[in-house]
Amino acid sequence: MRSYLSLAVLCTLACASSGNQGTKRALLPPAMTPTPPGDMPVTKPAPPPVLIKNATVMTAAGAIHSPGHVLIRDGRIAAVGAGDLAAPAGARVVDGKGMVVTPGIIDTHSHMGVYPMPAADAHQDGNEATAPTTPEVWAEHGIWPQDPAIARAAAHGVTTVQVLPGSANLIGGRSSTIKLKPATTARAMRFPGAPQGLKMACGENPKRVYGEKGRSPQTRMGDIAGFRAAFQSAIEYRRKWQAYERDLEDYKNNEKSDGEDAPDPPDRDIGLDTLTAMMDGKILLHIHCYRADDMQNLLDVAQEFGFRIRSFHHAVEAYKLARRLADENVAVSTWADWWGFKMEAFDGIPYNAALIAAAKGRPIMHSDSSSEVRYLPQQAAKARAAGESLGLKLSDDEVLRWVTANAAWALGIDGQTGTLEVGKMGDVVLWSTSPFSIYAKTKLVLIDGEVIYEDGKPIRPTDFELGTSAIDRTGTKRDPEVKL
Amino acid sequence: MNAILLAASLLAAPTVIDNVRVETGTTIIESATVIIDQGRVLSITPNKPASSATPQAGRSNATSTAAPAGQTSGAGNGTATQAGYSNGAATQAGHGNGAPTQAGYSNSAATQAGYSNGAATQAGHGNSVATQAGHINGAGKVLTAGLIETRSQLGVAEVLLEQESVDSTLKDAPFSPAFRVCDGFNPLSVRLPIARAGGITSVVVSPEGGVISGTGCWVDLVGTLASRPDASKPLAMFGGITSRDASRMGDGGGARGGTWLAIRQILDDARLHRRSGGRPLERMMSLSSLQLEALYPVLDGKLPLVLTAHRATDILAALELAKAEKLRLVIAGASEGWLVAAKLKEARVPVIIQPSEQLPYDFDQLNARDDLPALLERAGVTVILTTGLADEQNARRLRLEAGLAVANGMSREAALRAITSTPAEVFDHPAQGSLEPGKRADLVLWSGDPFETSTLAERVWIEGNPMSLDNRQRQLADRYLREHD
Predict the structure, then answer these.
(1) How far away is chain B from the Cα of A341, in angstroms, using its nearest Cα?
(2) C-alpha–C-alpha distance, residues A111 and A106, integer Å
(3) Is A149 in the B-facing interface, judged by CB distances under 8 Å?
C-alpha cells in the first residue's frame, strides 16, 4: 500500500470539526483518507438586525450596562454598550425597559437527543455499554433531533449544549457541541468550529455496570487500570504512526536511489484516533468525577500520560480540591444542590461553586438533565446565595459566567460565544427580569441572530410532536371538550 | 406531640417577631408583630394600617388576617386564648437572651422600645431545643408557615443507590397495602436537618414503587428519636397507575387493563374478607389477611388513597373507581390533569404536582405543560406542590417549585397554600400549615421572598421551638473554607 500520509493525517482523522484539513488532503485518493464530513454550510440568508435597547445588559465580560444596548447584525454581535444606539436600517428594535440581556446560556453536560423524551427503549442511544472503553463512538450519531426537550431548553434561554455519551463506560466516546436550533439532523446542529469533547467517567458508574457483568472494572482500582491501559495503547498507536511517518519521510528522500516499496501505514484504529487526538489537545477532555480523590487520581493519570483535563463534571467534591483544580486550570461543572443519590455524591454541598470561585477556579453550573437545563441561571443564583451565607462575595457578572463564559471556555468556544462582545455569535437572551430570579421568563432568544423563541409565540413543535398533543403548541385543538 | 417537645414549649417564654412581612397564603401583611407562645401562634398584629401587596401575582387581600382566636388545638396546651391579635401584643421586659416569665402576655401591649437586632443569627450548632425567647427584628424578612413536603422519602432512603440505606420500596411486590414505610423511618437521618434548613417542617413519608405500595405517615422534622412516628397509624395509602407502575407488575403484563383488573380484584377480596368476619372464605384471596385488612380504612373512605397517574384517561379511570367505591382519592403526578380539571374539581379530588417537571417524559405525559398549576388553580382544583415526584429527592427545593408555579401563572397565595395549609388539610393535620393565631407555630423566617432563589431560611420553629439550621453540608463547607484560608 503506497500513500503519502503525513503527520497531519492524524489530526485530519481525529478532528472532525476542526475544518482544518489543509491542502494535503486533495493530494490523496479519498479512499486512503476516510474523513467524517465537517460542518454543514449555512445556507440561510442572514436574519435581519435586532437592536435591544433600554435594557440592563449583562455582558459576562466584566461590564454591566444599565441602561444599555445590544445590536445583533449578520448573526453576530455588532455593538454592545451603555446608553442608546441609533437603529440601523431594517433593524427590529426591541424596547428592553425593565428587562435584562445576557449571553445565551450554555450547558456543558446534556444528554438531550441521546436520552430523549418521551422515554422509549428504541431511543436509548447514550451508552454503548458493551465495553468499558469505547472512544470510537460519537454522541452525534445517537442524537435524535426530534427530542422535544431541545426546543424547550432553547425557549428557556439555552443556546448551546454539549451532548455527551453516558457514564457507563470509563471512556464513553466523543461529545458533540450543538446549537439549539431546530434541525433535521444532529450534524446540522453542530456548533461550527467547536472542538469535539471526549467523555470519560471515573468512580462508581463504570465499576457498577461492568462489575455486575463480572468484568473489569469492578473496583476503583480497575477504573484507573482501565484508563492507564487505554492511554498506553494510544501512546503505542501514536508511536507506530510516528515511526511510519519517519519511514515514509526517509523513503521519500531515498525513493529514487533504491527503488524499494514505500512503507505500509499501520492499521488505523478509530478509537485510538480519538484518544491520540485528545492527548494532542485537539479534542477536549471532560470527566464525570464526583469525589476529590477520584479527581486526584485522574489528574495523576493525565500527568503520567501527558494530557490535559479540560473539565470535571458532577464534581461535587471539587471544593475539597479547589486550589489544585484552579492551579491546573481545570474547569468544574457542578450542580447547585443535587447530592447524596449515591455514595460518591454524598459530600455534595450547595457551597461548592462559591468555594471554587473563592479559590480562583472556574465554576460552571451544568444540568445533566433535560429538565434542569432550563433553570441554570437560577441554579447559579442558589449557589451564590449559599456562598454568600459563608461570607463569600460574588458579583452578578461572576455568577453569570458560571452559565455562560466559563461553560464556553470548557467547550473551547469562548472565542465565539459566552459573552456579549462585538464580533461574537449573536447568541443573546432577553429576560423579563434578572435571569437569577425564579420569576424570570425569556422574552426573546436569539441564536446566531435568529429568533429561536419569542414570548407569546408557540414553540415550534418537533416532527414527533405534530399531532401527538391534545392541543398542540400551534394551537390546534383535537378535542373540542378540552378547555384551557 | 411528643413529650420532649411539650416540655420544651411549656418552658419557653414567648417569642416576638417584629416588623416582619407576614404571608399566610390568604393574606400578606407588609409589617406585623407576631408572637409565638406555648408552641402556638398567639397573635399577628399589623404594625400599620393594613397595606398589602402581592409583588408577583398582583392579587392582594387587604384584610389583616383570618380566623378568630380559640382555634381548636389538638395538642392540649390550648391555654393561649387570644384577645384578637389586632390589639393584643406583648410587652417584653427583657430583651436579648433572657427568658422572662411573663404574666398575662395575652393582654399586654407590645411596646416596640427599640430592641436590638441581636437575635443571634442562628449559627448554633447541635440539636438543642434551646429556649430562645425574646425579640427578633424581622425587618426586611418574611414569615410563613413551615413548608410541608407531601411526597418524601426522608428518613427512609438515605442514599438511593445503596440498597441497605433504602427502606422506601418493596421489591417485586406490586400490591402491598400492609407495607408501612414508616416502620423504617430514621429520625436521625442526615437528610432531615438539610431539608429543615430549607424551611421544611413536616413531611409525608411515602412508599415508592408498585401499584398499591403501602401506607405512609406524617413526620415533623424535629429529628429526635422521640419524634419517631407511629407507623401503625397510617396517614394515607399510596400507589401508582402510570405505565411505569403497570410495567413493574410482572404478571399484569404491563397493560393498563391488567392494572385495573388487579386493583378491582384486591378491593373485592378486601370486602369479602371483611364480610367473612374470620369465617372460612369461599375462595382464594389475592393477598394475605394483613394485606387485605390494611385496605379496610381505604374502603371506608377514611384513609386517602394517593394514586400517581399522569395520562388524562388514567386520571378519569381513577375518578370513576373512586366514585364507584366511595374512595377518598388524591391524584399525584397529574401532568395531563389540566385536560380533566373540571372533573377533578367536580369530584373534589386534590392533586399533588411538581411544577418543574412538566415535560413529556413518557407517553403518559405528552400533554405536559408548564402552566399546569395555574390551569388547575383556575379550574378550582385543590393543588398541592411537591418536589417528590422526580427520581431524586431534594425537599429543600419545595419553595422554588412554588416560585416556578407563580412564574407560570399561579397566584402567589395559592402557591404558598399548596406547600403549607393545603397539604395539612388534605392529610388531616389542620392544626399545622397555617400562620394563624391558635395554630401550631411551625414557622419559617426567610431572608426575603420565600420563593426566590437568593433567599435563605434564617430561622425555623417547630411547635414554637427554634430548630437548629446546622447540618452536615454546612459543616463540610466550614471545614473546607477554613482549610482554604
Answers:
(1) 5
(2) 14
(3) yes
- Kindly state the average pLDDT of the residues B36-60: 69
Cβ atoms within 10 Å, residue A145: 20
At A257 the pLDDT is: 55
For A188, the grid coordinates are 446540522
| CA distances, A47 to each of A50, A72, A73, B426 (Å) | 9, 9, 8, 53
* pLDDT, tens digit (0-9, with 9 covering 90-100), for A4-35: 333 333 333 333 333 333 434 444 444 456 78
Q: What pLDDT score was predicted for residue B218?
A: 98
Q: For residue B404, what is the nearest residue in chain A, using CA coordinates?
A: A438
Give residue-wise pLDDT tens across range A177-210: 999 999 999 999 999 999 999 999 999 999 999 9
Instruction: Tell me the three state secondary structure of residue B305.
Output: strand
Q: Which residues of A touch B158 (CB under 8 A)?
A: 340
Q: What is the mean pLDDT of residues B202-225?
A: 96
- The confidence score (pLDDT) of residue A42 equals 75
B454 contacts A385? CB cut-off 8 A = yes
Whole-structure pTM value: 0.88
Cα angle value B366/B368/B371 (rounded, 5°): 160
Residue A78 sits at φ, ψ, to 5 deg, of -100, -25
Please name the residues in contact with B409: beta carbons below 8 A apart, sequence gap of 6 or more: B371, B373, B374, B375
**How far apart, in whole angstroms, are the C-alpha atoms of residue A223 and residue B189?**
31
Mean pLDDT of chain B: 83
Which contiguous run of DSSP H or E holds residue B416? helix B412-417
CA dihedral (A317, A320, A322, A325) positive or negative: negative
* A368 contacts A205 by C-beta, under 8 angstroms: no
Strands (E), B88-235: 134-137, 142-145, 147-152, 200-205, 212-220
Which of B470, B447, B360 lies closest to B137, judged by CA? Answer: B447
Option in A351, A385, A471 nearest B456 (CB): A385
- Give the bridge partners for A161, in sequence order: A107, A178
Give the model confidence (pLDDT) of B70-100 as tens digits: 333 333 332 233 333 232 233 333 333 333 3
Place of cell 463512538: A137
CA distance A242 to B101: 87
C-alpha grid cell for residue A398? 461572576
What is d(CA A61, CA B386) in angstroms, rounded to the nearest whole number?
38
Q: Which residues contact A295 (CB under 8 A, 6 or more apart)?
A: A202, A287, A289, A312, A315, A317, A318, A321, A325
